[in-house]
Amino acid sequence: MAIKVLHHGLATTVQDLGRPGYFHLGIPVGGAMDRYAMRAANRLVGNDEGAAGLEAVFMGPQLEFLHDAVIAVTGADMPAKIDGVLQPGWTALKIRAGQVLSFDFLKSGARIYIAVSGGIDVPLALGSRSTYPIGTLGGYKGRALAVGDELPVGQGSVVQDGRSVEEGLRRRPGTPAELRVLPGLYWDRLTDEAKKSFFADPWKVAPEADRMGYRFRGGRKLEFVERKQPFGAGSDPSNIVDSCYPYGSIQVPGGTEPIILHRDAVSGGGYFMLGTVISADMDLIGQLQPHTPTRFVEVTMEEALAARAERQALIERMRACLM
């Protein structure tokens, strides 16, 4: 069983929920940028939530199915079409051998997730099928899809088509997008005025936004508390002696443009980090287009933990919806 790639879209890769456990070796967690959408897509087609599917950004691929299957498309609003006929999103759909899955123009969001019953059956690499292109690791030959590729598909379970995730369970960024941030790490390096301006100023997603990180522009330059730079930290006040980068941490090179490190980010370096986007909001970042208005919201550890519990409750409601 296989799927033939007729057109690869802009950047379509095989992804699952990632490969934790290797960050200390410089290999990022990787996996779907919007893990909730990936989980929901797999649930819809009867797969384990960690099964491999496809992640496509800004433009969908064109895929010919060489076998009957059940598919689902979640995430961004990029209407799917089977043989040119529009299909509902976040819904289990039957597709027959010889039919072609394609996509209309992107309406909102940034990334779609395509799950197929049985999952994309590429080889495991360090316990995951996720593509890490910089390391040519995992996925289909360690790279984004190309015309002519044939993706192997596993044996799927029998699942009813027509099932759908309720509209209220389809999480999307607001306008402006709000990203909750837990200050810490090197927060004390900023002046009091810079701390206030970071949360008060409006920001926008810069064009330099990908799986490694999202850059933001528009706010005031952040000023640093004066200090004598320690040996090995470099001359710029935003430099530090090399340190580990937590997933979701925010670095601000030169104090000008915050960068949120995401799924394929490096594990360490020499820029200070003012804090971390809470885990409950990391999925939202993967659905932000360039120039999206964004504001950062300061939260406490207690609020971050409550948000994580709320996100888990949302996942449980989605699972119950698809029992």
UniProtKB/TrEMBL annotation:
Top-level taxon:
Bacteria
Q: Is this entry keyworded Nucleotide-binding? A: yes
UniProt xrefs under InterPro entries: CT_A_B (IPR003778), Cyclophilin-like_dom_sf (IPR029000), PxpC (IPR052708)
Q: Does the keyword Metal-binding apply?
A: no
SMART domains from the xrefs? AHS2 (SM00797)
Keywords annotated in UniProt: ATP-binding, Hydrolase, Nucleotide-binding
Task: Provide the GO MF annotations for this entry.
Answer: ATP binding; hydrolase activity
Protein name according to UniProt: Carboxyltransferase domain-containing protein
Record organism: Rhizobium rhizogenes (strain K84 / ATCC BAA-868) (Agrobacterium radiobacter)
